Amino acid sequence: LFWNNVTDYQPGWPGVHDRNERSRWYCEQLEQASILFFAHNPIYLPQEHRDILISLRQDNSRIHKNISYRPKLDKLRGYSSHQPGETARLRAIMQQYSESVTNFLSEFLAPYAQHWSLDYASYRPLEEEGRDLPLHKRNDLLHIDAFPSRPTKGGRILRVFTNIHPTKPRVWLTTDRFDVLAKELAFAAGLQKIADHAASADGRWARVTKSILSRIGVPERSAYDRFMLRFHDYLKENSEFQNGCRKIPLEFTPDSTWIVFTDAVPHAVLSGQCALEHTYIVPTDALLAPDKAPIRVLESLSGRSLSA
Ligand code: SIN
Ligand code: FE
Predict the structure, then answer these.
(1) Cβ distance 108 to 4 under 8 Å?
(2) End-to-end distance of the chain based on CA atoms, in angstroms?
(3) Which of 147, 155, 165, 282 could serve as a FRET partner for 291 with CA atoms 20 to 30 Å apart?
């Protein structure tokens, strides 16, 4: 139920008559919190680019955490080289990768293509096992994704990963999906307080202030965004949950690609090295089953609108 092996897709959908229907079906699977898995990467990625990316794994001193790429600004972050040519080359590789993933997804998940917004792409060249990161940044603890700097107001976080390591799998854990975790833990994490505040007079005034601050670049978070950030931290802080919950290990083999809504599929990365990743924000209007979206789940639990 939580995993689909995609075997009928090739670029251009050759031999598939009902490609629109297939595309819709895959979007529905994703919205039901499934992971779509391709045993072989369907994204155009020249071998030369792959080789250059893989060679960076020896290069810890020049890599900060992950290397990120912002497609709308054509900006690379997290990598510094003394040779300016190297940085420019890496930026060009990430630019091409971003374009290739977007081309692939536009065809494979056609119903979303007119609606999503391109978020960041990243390259993760460091071994995940044993990384020494502060608690809230640790990705080896189960969590759902929420980005402090990019509130979505209910929009979904869609991510595409490719394991380009020649031999090592990337190993994840997952557990029950967002709707189940939310029923069990959202109130303990403070859902009602955040929801009630948003609906109060104070909350409305706070919104006026925030909308002014947003003009100088302060991210404007909705009640939904505030809760999702809280829930992300709450899950990582909660050792009873981390130790006691049901755990399902997942192995992403070398050269595989997987697509997932990481705001509804809890995940932890235990080991692996050299993954490419691209994030898209899919607005709730574009979803085929918006009632399953985390914002709707939380609104129905709290009895409040959370979009403002
Ligand atoms: C994440 O936790 O969002 C990243 C997972 C990964 O890098 O495999
Ligand atoms: Fe995550």
Answers:
(1) no
(2) 33
(3) 147
From ligand 1's centre to the CA of 270, what distance in Å?
9
**CA 305 to centroid of ligand 2, rounded, Å:** 25
Q: What is the mean pLDDT of residues 138-153?
A: 96
Q: What whole-number distance in Å separates Cα of residue 161 and Cα of residue 276?
A: 6
47-86 pLDDT per residue, tens? 999 999 999 887 667 777 789 999 999 999 998 887 778 9
Q: At a CB cut-off of 8 Å and minimum separation 6, what does 132 contact?
A: none
Q: Is the CB of 158 under 6 A from ligand 1?
A: no
Q: What is the dihedral of CA 290, 291, 293, 294, to 10 degrees?
A: 150
124 within ligand 1 shell (Cβ under 6 A): yes
Contact assessment for residue 149 and residue 219, using Cβ atoms and an 8 Å cutoff: yes
- 3-class SS of residue 303: coil
Quick: pLDDT tens for 216-225. Answer: 888 899 999 9
Q: Are 34 and 4 in contact (CB under 8 A)?
A: yes
Nearest CA to 97 among 71, 134, 130, 131?
Answer: 71
Residues 179-217 have pLDDT tens digits of: 999 999 999 999 999 999 998 988 889 888 888 988 888
> Measured in angstroms, how far is the CA atom of residue 2 from the centroid of ligand 2?
17
**Residue 1 predicted with pLDDT over 70:** no
For residue 262 and ligand 1, the question of a CB distance below 6 A is answered with yes
